[in-house]
Amino acid sequence: MQQKRENWVDFAKGIGILLVVYGHVSRGIVNAGMAVDLAWFTVADSVIYSFHMPLFFFLSGLFLLPGLKKYGSRGLVAEKIDSILYPYLIWSLLQGGTEVLLSRFTTARTNMTEVLSLLWQPRAQFWFLYVLFGLFVLMAITLRQHQPVTGRSTLLAVGGALAAWCLSVWLALPFPLDFLGGYLIFFLMGAYGFYWKDELHRYLAPYAMPLLIASGLLFVSAEWLFHVPLRLLFSDHSPLNLLLACSGIMLVNGLAMSMVRSGIRWLQIFETLGYYSMPVYLMHILAGSGIRIVLSRFLHIDSTWLHLLAGCAAGILLPVFVFRLTQQPARRPLQYLFRPPAWLSFKPDRPVGGQ
């Protein structure tokens, strides 16, 4: 697959990270007791949460089999220690410590015991990194580097993941088993979808626009059925949640691919956001909460819309600014906020087979 056909992933990440930031900022506004239309907020929140994290597990799964082929099982886990576990630990401590210091200004009370329980109970948005690392470890143990992928093995893997998803919905599994079982299906859909990408492209590319329209209609219809006639929310753990998540993933991926094909320059902002999605994910709650504290406690501004716009802008722009700052040679030590120094790195020196 050529680069032109691959950079849609960053466009999809860009759409997804916008939804993540909006979701957390809006929840912070509601938790702060500001005036909102609760009916609108509840439905919008449920729609977003019905698919935006499954989307990120799907997109992360795209890198499973290539990583396994490149590094081998042990090397893949080592690489994920650097790229997922390390920032999880660093930013859990940074955000948790900040929340403890500023707890009298925020909507939640935090103590250091909660912060230091990060090895078994991730805080706030960091649960995603915790579960994602667990999925990479699980699949590195389960799969073999040179194990051939066939149609049969794909169906068995996805079928097993579907069974795990059903168990996570219908049984009260303890954490993290409930999250691992609930998101494995999307992770493997991404992994095996990437493996079969050429076949999928050959058969589906001629119908790209009809498929995009169909996925949009399916998404809107499923969300309407779920939230209006059935009066359900994403937290109700209905079997329909799988349909909502899959239709949302299809729609966002279709939109991302359409953005790439369109060549419209201003749409590249989504690609840029996707490139910075990791630092934005790590820092957006600190940035958004900080702006809310400044606006409400010090400037005495209580406009909900202003808080929402300022919170989303800060949640995106401040993390990007900080990350770009850390990449400057003069500020080299700040790079260790996102990746470990060489002496602490677990990443293999070279890929398996010298690739």
Structure, described:
This protein has helices spanning 3-6, 8-31, 38-49, 52-61, 64-101, 112-115, 127-142, 151-170, 177-195, 197-204, 208-227, 240-262, 268-275, 277-298, 304-326. It has one domain (3-354). The chain has 355 residues and is an all-alpha fold. α2 crosses α12, α4 (52-61) crosses α12 and α5 runs parallel beside α14. It contains 15 helices and no strands. The longest helix has 38 residues, at 64-101. Helix content is 71%, strand content 0%.
Chart the SSEs and their pairings:
Blueprint: H1 3-6, H2 8-31, H3 38-49, H4 52-61, H5 64-101, H6 112-115, H7 127-142, H8 151-170, H9 177-195, H10 197-204, H11 208-227, H12 240-262, H13 268-275, H14 277-298, H15 304-326
Helix pairs in contact: 2-3, 2-4, 2-12, 2-13, 2-14, 2-15, 4-9, 4-12, 5-7, 5-14, 7-9, 8-9, 11-12, 14-15
Distance between the termini: 18 Å
Order of helices and strands: HHHHHHHHHHHHHHH
The radius of gyration computed from the alpha-carbon positions, rounded to a whole number of angstroms, is: 21 Å
For the biggest sheet, the summary is: none
How many DSSP helices?
A: 15
Derived structural class: mainly alpha
Overall spatial form: globular
Helix content: over 70%
Total count of strands: 0
- Percent strand: under 5%
Residue windows where pLDDT falls under 50 for at least 5 positions: 1-5
Q: Indicate the mean pLDDT.
A: 91
Total separate domains: 1
